[in-house]
Design brief:
The complex is a heterodimer. In chain A, 77% of the residues lie in helices and 2% in strands. By secondary structure, chain A is mainly alpha-helical. In chain A, strands 1-4 form a two-stranded antiparallel ribbon. Chain B is built from twelve helices and two strands. Classes of the chains: A mainly alpha, B mainly alpha.
Chain lengths: 331, 289
Amino acid sequence: MRKFLLPLRSREKGFLVALALAAVTLAIVPYVSSSYTINAMRDAMVLGLFALSYDLIWGKTSTLTLGHAVFFGTGAYTLAITTVQYGVAPWLGAVAGICSAALLAWVVGYFLLYAGVRSQFLAVISLAVLLIVRQIATSWRSVTGGDVGILGIPPLILGGIDLSGAVASYFAALTLLTVALLGCWIALRGTYGKVLAAIGMNEFRAKHCGFNTAFHLLTMFIVSASLAGLAGALYASMAGVVAPDLFSILLSTDVVLWVAIGGKGSLLGPVIASILLIRVQQEVSSYAADLWPLILGVVFLFFVLVLPKGLSGLIAWGSRKAGRRTVSVAK
Amino acid sequence: MLLNMLSAISILALVALGLAIVFGMMDIVNLAHGEFVTIGAFTLALLQRYAGTNSFWLALGVAPLIGAVAGLILERTVIRFLYRRTLDTLLATYAVSLIVQKLLEMTMGKHPQLVSSPLPNTIDIVGVPYPAYRLLTIAIAVIVVSTCLLVLTRTRFGADLRAVIQNRQMAEAVGINATRMNQIAFAGGAGLAALAGVLIAPYASVVAQMGVQFLTKAFLVVVVGGIGSVIGCIVGSSLVASSETLLNYFVDPSMASAIVLILAIVLVRFCPRGLVAGFGAGRSLAGKS
């Protein structure tokens, strides 16, 4: 327990303040905007949860995968199949979604991570996994509904509270997102986060310092997949429909992008970046649907070349600079 | 059936070869490689539109040049800033591929381009008629791949290139201009992809997104066959393309490609260095990977 109660460093205070600010801002939104905006923001927050899950694996351990949407889709599809085909209660379906995403991650991760498949290889192979699952989703018609997908997924009902209304589901998404964000942050701010960072920096050395690197990577992979599965289940129950599009390469690369732009490993950065980018995308697409990938490509290229640490890296740099200035003024 | 297999192999080998060189030698994951294939195919489409069907032969010469120039531009403007950051090259080239796809779509339109094969007739082989164009594809692929193999193994240039792949610092220390080698290799890889694009165009529908489907397969080939090795690339593409063509006869095509992907993953699990250890193998053995 002691390691969770480390004294707060100033940077960490900054994180908590930013998190509180973001949460409060998001909590005000439903009172001041139209129902369209509320729904759009809610979807954006669910995808923000997805971005957070990806930040755990790519940001924290520097393990790049290109098929993260597979877990999102698995969560969504499991919820859809269990609730629509078997009449399971929605919250149980969501639990099943998380479990199936975790199970898939365990199988794939055990198979690959313990074999020493890493970096570029893992990225390419994970893309292949995504293509396989997508193939299954389209061709196994009796269960997955083929190209059409599954319609009529019931909304979540948690502890007697019906989450089908726009405002209720908005706050459910916000609460889950905040709790998940805080939980990940608390779990990784201590020693464990450092171990993961060490593995990400140089796995060879971390291994020879006595850490079972494959095990730690697999653990993070499973945790990340479960979170993605949760996001997928939420998405399915709120959208009411799943389709093979969920297993798209585009979603997998979008999430890479959100994390890259928000700042790898900063947890809050990717979440905010994803929410903002999705909102911008929704607005731009309504004017010119074709333009969006072009803008995305240019923005992304800019960030990779000029700001590899993303927005949160920029903010950290800015605050360090400001801090130095105050010190020199004080002298 | 055997010939179908051979033509599938030869096309895949051409696409993968360029990728193998770039991936293996410079540690660059080039997700824009598929776009060079597209560029090749579009070059053919444009030439045929304005200069008639027979300009296929012209395209065969021009497209690799255009591809190489495009590759060189990409290398100079983006890749060269990222030489020490392997995974970032992946992200940057992905962004580039998005941009190129969209620009092509906006300038050329969403409809498939019209492309015709230069040899529409068939040739009888042991009594069975077979499209002459496929034979041409096989012939060109064999010539190009074996030329590459010879250049890499038998010439001074090839020796220099392999030296850079194995150990860049040492290669520079003995006076090889590694930066220039990288440029040439990248442009060459792009040129090969564009050539493959021209050859593919008559079979496939020429749209801006056509490169994507070849990209994943080509990557699998490279990973399965062994990084940075020409032989591995040939072995890998034979394996991937032939099993896919064979499976197509037994199960439905989309399942066939899924099965091939699974097979490839299992293979990689058991030999993470690929079937044929490539020129880069020395480096990974030294634990510097």
